[in-house]
Design a protein that fits this description.
Helices cover 42% and strands 19% of the residues. It has helices at 6-19, 23-34, 39-45, 52-92, 110-123, 138-141, 175-184, 225-240, 282-287, 303-311, 324-327; strands at residues 128-129, 135-137, 168-170, 189-198, 210-219, 246-253, 256-265, 271-280, 296-302. The longest helix is centred in the first third of the chain and has 41 residues, at 52-92.
Length: 330
């Protein structure tokens, strides 16, 4: 199959978008370039005819151009709405003291920025994003993840429960999303689950009762610790740079076996721990109803930890103080 020139299609799209001045024309552009009869849609249907190598290569190109066109159309739509509202405001209200559209604008918080970057790194190698509730059950947060009733993490001193029977709580990890996803989906599974988590921690330079995590899960045929190691080494180099070295050391987590911590070499030549990982314990797969012999790996990283390392931030509290002198640096 001859490969079409996607760059030429994108250039034609940008030209049409520039000439668009209302939402009706935007709809026509969307139909022309992304509709079911568009060239891109027809090419997407032909991917199945390609070799495995070409499927991945051309499929990624189709995905990228689709996302770029969708984003451009959405941004154009927002700008047209802003202009319409501004024109209406100027026409209907002569109060010159009101300025709804300040030039200062807004900016993404450093936590959101780092979280989005991590998600994008894993998305680039085929992971999708999964979400779940912040108020969870003990079963999803502990039992399904092979954490016994006597484990210290289940003590009231460590976990923020929201009922007297200790059956409901504010999730202590986004691993709960992995459980929910596996209950509703069959392998192969490649997901990351970003979100806010809660623990009964005293605030200090590196701990907070509220923080953010990104957990990952991969379940597929014959997946191994080698796959886990390669995946995380790729992530670390993408996030911190190619010169950063990694080291895996044994650790213990109830829901993985074997388990490890990942350390990175830092500027002062010290090794700093950034995340935990391991092969998913067979008990976890049994708890979600997967067949015996299923293999997979999981990992979890603190978003604040990544941001603090990259930007030399000395106290986690800085992320939550809403001090513009701090936030404007990013």
């Amino acid at each position: 199959m001859a490969e079409i020139n996607l760059d030429k299609i994108y250039s034609s799209f940008l030209l049409a978008l520039e000439e668009s001045d209302d939402e009706d024309s935007l709809s026509r552009i969307h139909k022309e370039f992304l509709g079911k009869d568009s060239v891109i849609s027809k090419q997407r249907k032909n991917i199945s005819k390609l070799s495995d190598l070409d499927k991945k290569k051309f499929g990624n190109k189709i995905k990228d151009i689709t996302q770029k066109i969708s984003l451009e159309i959405q941004n154009k739509k927002i700008n047209l709405q802003k202009v319409a509202y501004k024109n209406r405001e100027d026409k209907e209200n002569s109060d010159i003291s009101i300025d709804w559209y300040e030039n200062t604008g807004s900016k993404e918080h450093i936590i959101s920025s780092v979280m989005d970057e991590v998600v994008q790194i894993f998305s680039s190698i085929g992971y999708t994003v999964a979400h779940g509730p912040e108020a969870e059950t003990s079963w999803h947060n502990f039992d399904a993840l092979n954490t016994p009733v006597w484990h210290p993490a289940r003590y009231e001193s460590d976990t923020l429960y929201i009922d007297k029977k200790l059956q409901n709580l504010l999730r202590t990890q986004t691993s709960t999303v992995q459980v929910r996803h596996m209950k509703d989906n069959e392998p192969p599974i490649y997901i990351v689950s970003p979100g806010r988590v809660y623990r009964s921690d005293q605030l200090d330079s590196t701990h907070s009762p509220v923080f953010h995590q990104i957990e990952g899960l991969a379940v597929d045929d014959a997946i191994s610790f080698t796959d886990l190691k390669g995946t995380l080494e790729f992530f670390v180099k993408e996030f911190f740079g190619n010169n950063v070295k990694t080291k895996f050391i044994p650790h213990f987590f109830p829901f993985t076996e074997p388990s490890a911590e990942v350390l990175v070499s830092w500027k002062d030549s010290n090794w700093l721990e950034i995340l935990g990982c391991g092969m998913v314990d067979p008990n976890v797969f049994e708890n979600v109803g997967f067949k015996k012999g299923t293999q997979g790996f999981a990992f979890g990283v603190g978003v604040e930890r990544l941001a603090m390392l990259r930007h030399n931030i000395d106290h986690i509290k800085n992320f939550y103080d809403n001090d513009l002198r701090f936030l404007r640096q990013f």
